[in-house]
Design a protein that fits this description.
The complex is a heterodimer of chains A (about 260) and B (about 675). Chain A is of the alpha/beta class. Chain A contains 13 helices and 8 strands. The radius of gyration of chain A is 18 Å and the shape is globular. The two termini of chain A are about 30 Å apart. Chain B is built from 19 helices and 34 strands. In chain B, the strands form 12 sheets. Chain B has a 5-stranded parallel β-sheet with strand order 10-7-6-18-29, with helices on one face. Chain B has a 5-stranded parallel β-sheet with strand order 20-27-21-22-23. Classes of the chains: A alpha/beta (about 260), B alpha/beta (about 675).
């Protein structure tokens, strides 16, 4: 199966391994990630300003590109997925916005949100299936106690993201079970890491991040996984005492393709 | 040609405020058949009805149009008026110029114009009305009460007290419902068991009352006065009439580790069990999913210790068929699942509990014998946080929780907080609330006592996050009055979960063709004037199945429902609704379309002999309507392709005449 793939800026520099492991693992699972040609930054933040369309255009271009190939669009970075999914939803439901965008792009075909948008985790759950994933695991991470860290962007706003219950999500926990490890439940798994506030007020971000790590450690975790480069940055920068890695890294490890990517 | 009288009501200023009633009366004078037309301030009053009666006599009226409020409000009133003056009551038509006209328009010109048009339509219809005579049907003098909680118990006792036999169907092994699980009851703080269990005993001893416990309603047919009901008595593998409730089997059963439903899973019960000491009927029940003997034929210990020989592993579900004149729904409520509210960490910590679980924890017959101990480690909590409105009063577009107020939580939380402070004065008790709603006799005084005398700390604001850490629950909340973030280290968090109708309510409503609202609460026939009757004739509502209610309210409603049932069962015959469907057999082509759409099963097909040309006959399959079952919904008249089905009082020709009058 082939899907359109939107890596996003961070995955091309800071978060290279999030990208590399995602591609390798997908191949093993029978899915080819076809990188969208000439993709541009997702916009970074989905602004809710009604008349702001410029920062959403690149997402629409990516969505339109996938629509032309009749492929679902998969992204792996929490922030990119959030912006793309919200933009797609706006194209489906806000006709004013859709008209403005289509007029601005002035292309022959109109786009009104036809593309199916998947986060890589949703791709594992809905297109591959966690049972099928389990069968492909060659190096089960048994004994590992992994805490899933959702952060804020992956699940919210729930009405649009429609990924999982925002207060009691299961998707990453089921993923952890599929690769043979034990999920650790802890209360702070869907709280904010501090996000961009770390630029302006590092102390505040440190408080937020520390609360997450402390809670995960108290619950007995020996590793935290995340899908968000900013979450990983904040957690590590503020001195997480246990490893914080991308979920694609443990996926690649379980599928036996992690070594290949280590140059 | 009819002689029609038109009576336009002002309804005080309700109609006259936006409709020129005199102009309406004047305009309708010129309609075909109208010989008299007038207006009056309150047509439904005695004086107004007299105007109608006098006009009927004076002008020899054969038909009447009342331009007033909705027919749901006063159609019956004006029909009675007409009947009193010797006119067939079905010669009355109502033009709704209040709810559908004056209340929705602001402008006098538009309002008047529309009222005239609605009046014209009613005149056009009444010109085609024919006198109708309702049929009669007998009444089975036995009532069915579905649900054996306090609502069902009170209803059954009151009906039985009037001398009519009653059956209670309860899905659990015992009657008693939620009230049996409670510790104390507000605002008087008498113990729930002390006031409930005597009533349960009364039910058991009343010879007019039969209890079908561990049973479910399987099928409902028939109609008011003549319901046919199938009740499934689930196999409890114990002969109810022989079991003495001694409990020897319960003590000996080796399969002891099954979550005890009565204590909400906070302790265990054996595979054979009696839910609680005062259960009615006090007989044992075997849980087939837990019993070794039933699962793989090994054990049989309970049969060996049973001195009475009551154990029967071969028992099967049994279907009981019975006829009833009236059915009372008393299916009650449940707290909603806390699964979607994990910001309060209910799934993560044993020390985050619901209020009903708190009731069991403080109940002397509960898992801790009434000592307030944390479920996780048995320590006594020093700081308790109560959170109100968990899942109640949620945003309409939120995907979790309910939009409505669950009504009972403010009072029971005040009760919990007060009792905790009373029994354990060294405990810090916080209550987080959106609003405190405690109207009711002695209710607000009760809440204020919790604050003023018992020092419960009420904080306006909601809890945003509960984080279990070590043996503490870190509670993060906002205090809206002082605009501060609060961080409280709690030992126990109690969630006042919203309540919702029992899951059995929806399928039951389908069986009864009784209507429900979007929250699955049963709808009453009129929210103010007929609060305990369902719109479906012969079906009555008791307790929380109709909306959130506390015990005093439930008991009053239960009594009201009983009195309605008694009023029905006291009659020997019921007059039906004559506005039912009938089939013109000459036009019917036997296609079965009507039979398929009929929600009441009122249409059957029969082979009939018809005379044909040249002295021949032919057998044809034609539809026939049972007028006692038909509710006059009209679905069949629309489905019939040949126009053979028609509704008395709402004939196709009448509807078309109305439409023509409106479109003229």
């Amino acid at each position: 199966m082939k899907v359109s793939y939107f890596p996003g800026c961070t995955l091309k520099n800071k978060a290279k391994d999030l990208d590399e492991y995602a591609r390798k693992s997908a191949e093993v699972l029978g899915i080819t990630l076809e990188e969208i040609q000439d993709w541009q930054c997702c916009g970074g933040v989905f602004t809710t300003a009604k008349n702001e369309i410029a920062t959403k255009l690149s997402s629409v271009r990516a969505l339109k590109d996938a629509a032309a190939k009749e492929q679902p669009l998969v992204s792996v970075c929490s922030a990119c997925h959030n912006v793309i999914k919200q933009t797609n939803h706006a194209m489906q439901t806000d006709s004013d916005f859709a008209t403005k965008v289509n007029n601005y792009m002035a292309e022959e075909s109109l786009y009104t949100g036809e593309t199916q948008v998947y986060h890589y985790l949703e791709m594992l759950r809905d297109l591959v299936g966690f049972d099928a994933l389990k069968e492909k695991v060659v190096n089960a991470l048994s004994g590992k106690k992994i805490a899933a860290y959702y952060g804020c962007l992956l699940l919210r706003p729930n009405g649009v993201m429609q990924m999982d219950d925002p207060e009691n999500p299961q998707i990453m926990e089921n993923f952890i079970r599929a690769i043979g490890a034990t999920p650790v439940l802890y209360a702070m798994r869907n709280e904010c890491c501090g996000g961009y506030i770390s630029m302006e007020s590092p102390d505040l971000a440190a408080n937020k991040s520390n609360a997450v790590v402390k809670n995960a450690v108290a619950a007995g975790a020996d590793m935290i996984i995340t899908a968000c480069p900013l979450c990983k940055y904040n957690l590590i920068k503020n001195g997480a005492e246990i490893p914080v890695v991308y979920f694609t890294e443990v996926l690649a490890e379980a599928l036996g393709v992690k070594e290949d990517t280590n140059e | 040609m009819q002689r029609v009288g038109v009576f336009v009501c002002w309804c005080g200023s309700n109609i006259a405020g936006t409709v020129d009633v005199a102009a309406v009366a004047e305009a309708l004078k010129n309609e075909p058949g109208v010989v008299f037309s007038t207006d009056y301030q309150y047509m439904c009053s005695q004086a107004g009805q007299d105007i109608i009666k006098n006009a009927i006599a004076e002008h020899n009226l054969t038909g009447i149009v009342v331009c007033s409020c909705s027919p749901r409000m006063h159609e019956a009133t004006f029909r009675k008026t007409a009947a009193a003056a010797g006119l067939n009551p079905y010669m009355v038509e109502i033009a709704n110029i209040r709810e559908q006209c004056s209340w929705v328009h602001k402008d006098m010109t538009t309002g008047t114009e529309k009222a005239i048009i609605l009046g014209k339509a009613a005149v056009a219809k009444v010109n085609l009305n024919t006198p109708l005579t309702p049929g009669e049907s007998p009444v089975t003098k036995r009532a069915l009460v579905i649900g054996g909680g306090i609502a069902g118990i009170q209803t059954a006792l009151d009906i039985a007290d009037a001398g009519f036999p009653v059956d209670i169907v309860e899905t659990k092994p015992t009657i008693g419902g939620k009230m049996a699980q409670l510790d104390k009851t507000f605002p008087t703080l008498d113990c729930a068991a002390c006031i409930l269990t005597p009533k349960m005993v009364d039910v058991a001893q009343n010879e007019k009352i039969r209890i079908f416990s561990y049973s479910e309603v399987e099928e409902v047919g028939g109609f008011v006065g003549n319901f046919d009901v199938k009740i499934k008595k689930k196999a409890r593998y114990v002969k109810e009439d022989i079991c003495t409730g001694c409990g020897a089997c319960v003590d000996k059963c080796p399969m002891k580790k099954n979550p005890n439903e009565f204590n909400l899973g906070m302790d265990n019960r054996p595979a054979i069990y009696i839910p609680f000491a005062q259960a009615v009927p006090k007989v044992a029940t075997i849980d087939p999913n837990a019993c070794n003997m039933l699962k793989n034929g090994k054990c049989g210990l309970c049969a060996r210790v049973c001195a009475a020989g009551a154990i029967d592993y071969t028992q099967k579900d049994e279907i009981i068929e019975e006829k009833y004149g009236a059915i009372v729904v008393a299916t009650g409520f449940n707290p909603i699942s806390m699964e979607k509210f994990d910001e309060f960490a209910y799934n993560q910590s044993k020390d985050v509990i619901t209020s009903l679980e708190f009731e069991r924890l403080t109940n002397a017959a509960g898992p801790t014998a009434g000592h307030l101990e944390r479920p996780s480690d048995g320590k006594s909590p020093k700081t308790i946080v109560f959170v109100q409105c968990v899942g109640s009063r949620c945003d309409a577009c939120s995907e979790k929780g309910k939009e409505y107020c669950s009504k009972i939580c403010c009072m029971y939380t005040a009760k919990h907080a007060m009792l905790t402070r009373d029994k354990y004065p060294d405990t810090d008790v916080y209550v987080f609330y959106i609003d405190v709603r405690t109207p009711g006799k002695n209710f607000d005084e009760f809440y204020r006592r919790a604050v003023e005398e018992f020092g419960v700390k009420y904080i306006k604001g909601m809890v945003g996050k509960v984080t279990p850490e070590g043996d503490k629950l870190k509670v993060q909340a906002s205090d809206l009055l002082s605009n501060k973030q609060l961080h409280i280290d709690a030992d126990l968090v109690v969630l006042a979960a919203a309540i919702e109708p029992d899951k059995s309510a929806r399928p039951l409503a389908t069986m009864l063709t009784a209507s429900m609202d979007t929250n699955d609460f049963f709808t009453e026939a009129h929210p103010k004037l007929r609060p305990v009757e369902s719109p479906t004739a012969g079906v009555f509502l008791s307790g929380a199945c109709q909306g959130p209610k506390d015990i005093p309210e439930t008991v009053s409603q239960a009594g009201a429902a009983a009195s309605k049932v008694i009023g029905l069962l006291a009659k020997d015959k019921l007059t039906g609704n004559p506005c039912v469907a009938h089939s013109n057999e000459l036009m019917c082509n036997g296609c079965s379309s009507c039979e398929r759409v009929c929600p009441y099963g009122a249409i059957t097909y029969e082979d009939k002999e018809f005379r044909m040309p040249n002295r021949t006959t032919k057998i044809r399959r034609v539809a026939s309507v049972n007028p006692a079952v038909c509710q006059g919904c009209g679905a069949c008249t629309v489905a019939c392709p040949s126009g053979a089905m028609d509704l008395k009082g709402f004939a196709n020709s009448q509807i078309i005449a109305e439409v023509d009058a409106i479109c003229k």
